[in-house]
Amino acid sequence: MNRRRAYEDDGDFYGERNKKRRRVSENQEMEERLETLILRVGENSTSSLESNLEGLVSVLESDLGNFRSKILRILSDCPIKMPEKCTIYSTMVGLMNAKNYNFGGEFVEYMVKTFKDSLKQCQWDAARYALRFLADLVNCHVISTNSLLQLLDSMVDAANEDNVPQVRRDWYVFAVLSTLPWVGRELYEKKESALENLLVRIEVFLNKRTKKHHNALRVWSVDAPHPQEEYLDCLWAQIRKLRQDNWTEKHIPRPYLAFDSVLCEALQHNIPVIHPPPHQDSFEYPMPWVVYRMFDYTDCPPGPILPGAHSIERFLIEEHLHSIIEMHRWERKDCAIHLLMLPYKDKIPLEYCIVEVIFAELFHMPTPRYLEICYGSILIELCKQQPSKMPQVLAQATEILFMRIDSMNTSCFDRFVNWFSYHLSNFQFRWSWDDWDSCLLLENEHPRPKFIQEVLLKCLRFSYHDRFKEMMPEGYAKLIPKPPVPHYKYSMEGAVSTRWE
């Protein structure tokens, strides 16, 4: 009797445990489904983005009771890990706030915590994207303009601290300036005087700022034909141009405009007072850089016009391309596909923008962000993905670099040699060498013939000497490396005998 009861009790136990397992697996499947829906919103779909957002918001609202923390976490992670979809997620949060004010307040608290944690952990890109998202929530009537301006003012206050590294002050100003394209129009319409005061404070900071690092980070020693601007100076010029255009730009998608009648009736939340964490000796900040320019609109064929160097569209396009490289650098095919699928690609000469950004990464001083071969492999994949345009643009870029090589930084010269030799080795070493005949009249140590000599020396490691003798025009014979023949000193005439006497 006791044994039978024990058996029955065990059966109930295992049955209950199986129910719990099924419940856990069902919850896990539901969480994964919600995460997939949120991550993929805005991607290729047969229906419009507006209808997708409305449907997804309805699904999330019905699941808030069971998956509230999960939804908060995913919605706060997405605009940081996928900053190119920032406005899509801000629209989603705005629609949810319009339906559920309490959820909107919880999300703002969660996002503020994410922003503060990123600052404390020196995750500077994550902090900048979080600040951008908070600013875009102003456009969706989730956050009040006054509280955002208070936050931006505190960021500028941090830039005016004494006895802290300049790189720290620079980052805080850069974070504010890079956020203004998203929210500048809204602040201009509602808080114009406060916005102007903020810009005046930034201008005062920039005028007092030292730029001793500028010359050390230049790719070329001359400013012709494109000035080599320090990154904050360039962004400030772009923001001033945006202000002249009444804060109107043509690159940022703004899906929340379609829901303005719904969003404008929602109650807004205030960002709590945020004091940036004080500087510590262990903190590492992003280093300054020089904005790389290779092309202007005259270099591009008839068609879409390349935005000017001081247009905010140029900054937004370049930032987007840099983020794609950072996200997909481990897989060159995916990286090339995402680069070529850039939104608004029909409105810009995309291939020229991509090539310019990749060379900006390769020539970044003092060292590139990633291995040099990373950029070479991405360029090769781009040529394979788009053989009708990319090889011609890359050949034009190579020609420009070669003609300006006289004033190129020595480190960039070496990287140019390494990239070009690697690229040639993947395309059967074919190149129109006759176009560079003029360099043969120069001294061998001049940068142009020296470049060709170094390239051939590197290429020799990928091929064999006789091939270059046959491939190169006769005039280049003096630049071809000597044949790599063995040198056995004991077989030479007059060699000392090694036999014991």
UniProtKB/TrEMBL annotation:
Domain MIF4G span(s) in chain numbering: 31-243
Subcellular location: Nucleus
GO biological process: 7-methylguanosine mRNA capping; mRNA export from nucleus; nuclear-transcribed mRNA catabolic process, nonsense-mediated decay; primary miRNA processing; RNA splicing
Function of the molecule: Component of the cap-binding complex (CBC), which binds cotranscriptionally to the 5'-cap of pre-mRNAs and is involved in various processes such as pre-mRNA splicing and RNA-mediated gene silencing (RNAi). The CBC complex is involved in miRNA-mediated RNA interference and is required for primary microRNAs (miRNAs) processing. Also involved in innate immunity via the short interfering RNAs (siRNAs) processing machinery by restricting the viral RNA production.
One GO MF term: mRNA binding
Family per record: Belongs to the NCBP1 family.
Keyword terms, alphabetized: mRNA capping, mRNA processing, mRNA splicing, Nucleus, RNA-mediated gene silencing
Main location: nucleus
Binding partners and assembly: Component of the nuclear cap-binding complex (CBC), a heterodimer composed of Cbp80 and Cbp20 that interacts with m7GpppG-capped RNA.
Protein name: Nuclear cap-binding protein subunit 1
Any one GO cellular component localisation term in the record: nucleus
